[in-house]
Structure formats: structure tokens, C-alpha cells
Amino acid sequence: MNISYTYDDLITLTLTDYFFPGLNTGDKDKYFEYGSDETGHVFEGIIQYNGTEKIPVSLLFAMNIYGNDARKSDGSLFYSKYLELGYTKTISDSEINPFLGLSLDNPDETKGESSYYLNEKPGIINLGMALSKSVKITESFALPLHFSIITNPDLNKVYLVGGFSLSL
Fold first, then answer.
1. Residue whose C-alpha is closest to residue 161's, from 125, 150, 152
2. By the 8 A CB rule, do 36 and 64 touch?
3. Buried-most residue among 33, 73, 81, 153 (CB within 10 A)?
4. Torsion angle, CA of 120/123/126/127, rounded to 10 degrees?
5. pLDDT tens-digit profile of 51-101?
6. Residues 151 and 161 sit within 8 Å (Cβ to Cβ)
């Protein structure tokens, strides 16, 4: 779940509540438990510069600010940080968006620390390209499609994502 506010189409502020039952939550699987040490939720704050038509570059900074984030060896939150640079280009009614994302955290594995993003040191954890296009079905209806190829070079993983949107 998230809530966003965009100012002048230029800056977007977002607060996201992530909850992944059973994934690194252990006994923190109760959805309505929000105590700082008992919750399986992770709250992330995001500030994003959306770019302009003249300068189609976006810059996003995200930080986990509460909840089931990675912990330092002293038990305090890592406040995991992520930075993403994106570019938007429209070609023949298709929008192409290459992006590069970095984890800014440096867990000390000798002290048993691990990162929220599973990286061992600061570096690239998100590299890919998204493509969006509306396909005309009838004179009055077009189906917005989107596809992405996403890699995590740090974990040696590749993801393919596809979907569509419907507005009623």
C-alpha cells in the first residue's frame, strides 16, 4: 500500500508499506502488529525528481524508515537506502525507460550484518529497461501494455515483467 503526492509534476513524495508474510518475518506474520520490534511491515519513504520534457532524467531516493528492515550488529535499523537514475525516451508512440539502481548500504558481514537488498557492499542492484505502449483495439479503446527486463548484477538474477492496465 502506498500514498503519494506530486508537486508540479516535478517532485513526488511517496510512503509505502510493504508486508511480505512468511518472508523474513518469522514470528512477525501478524498483519495488524505495528510495534517497532514485532512488525513484519517495512515503511519506505521516497522522494523522486520526475524530470521534464526538456530533461527526461529522473532521480529517486528511497529509505526504509521503520519496521522489519535489516539490522546492524547493535540491533539498530540499517535505514536501508536506495538510489535510482532513470531516463525516458518516446519513440513511435512507445515509451522506453532504461534505469540504474544502487544500494547505498555497506553491511559488516564479520559482525553478522546483512543488507535488506541482500548486497554485500554498496553497488548496482537494479539495472534494466521498461517499455510501455498502448495498443489500439477499437476506435474507442486502447490497451496500455508494459514490459520490463530487470537484472540484479550483484545477485546474478534476471527478471522479466509484463502487464496491462484497465481503467473503468
1. 150
2. no
3. 81
4. -140
5. 998 999 999 999 999 998 998 889 888 999 999 999 999 999 999 999 999
6. no
Give the 3-state secondary structure of residue 110: helix
Grid coordinates of 37: 520490534
Which residue shows C-alpha cell 532521480? 59
- Which residues are paired to 100 by β-bridges? 85, 127
Q: What phi and psi values does residue 109 have, to the nearest 5 degrees?
A: -65, -25
User: Any alpha helices (H) in the chain, and if so which ranges?
Assistant: none
Report CA dihedral (59, 65, 68, 71) to the nearest 10 degrees.
Answer: 90
Beta carbons within 8 Å of 6's beta carbon, 6+ residues apart: 12, 13, 50
